Amino acid sequence: MTALTFAVRRKEPSLVGPAAPTPHETKRLSDTDDQEVLRMHVPFVFFYRAGKGVRNPASVIRRALCEALVP
User: Fold this and answer.
1) 0.70 exceeded by pTM
2) Where does the signal peptide begin and end (predicted)?
């Protein structure tokens, strides 16, 4: 098995906002979020191959976070 090596460059923190406007409303926690018994830690890390043409994985993650913030 070949070890994976890559360089990491640390930059200043930046705000990740939603990809589109979001409604101004209060969101209640779900029952799952509210019950400690249902919270658990899953000790796994999954790795996936990058799609063809992906040169900057950080930008892909940033864009996905922006889209996840839109209801």
Assistant:
1) no
2) none
What string of DSSP letters covers 4-15? P-----------
Nearest residue to 54 (alpha-carbon basis) of 65, 62, 46: 62
Tell me the two tokens of residue 66: 């922006």
CB-based contact 8:57 (threshold 8 Å): no
What DSSP string runs through 16-29? Answer: ---SS-------PP
Alpha-carbon gap, residue 59 to 65, rounded angstroms:
10
Q: Taking the chain (71 residues) in consecutive chunks of 10 residues, what is each chunk's mean pLDDT?
A: 79 93 84 75 82 83 92 82
Any idea which residue has 């990740």 for tokens? 16
Of 67, 59, 53, 64, the C-alpha closest to 19 is 67
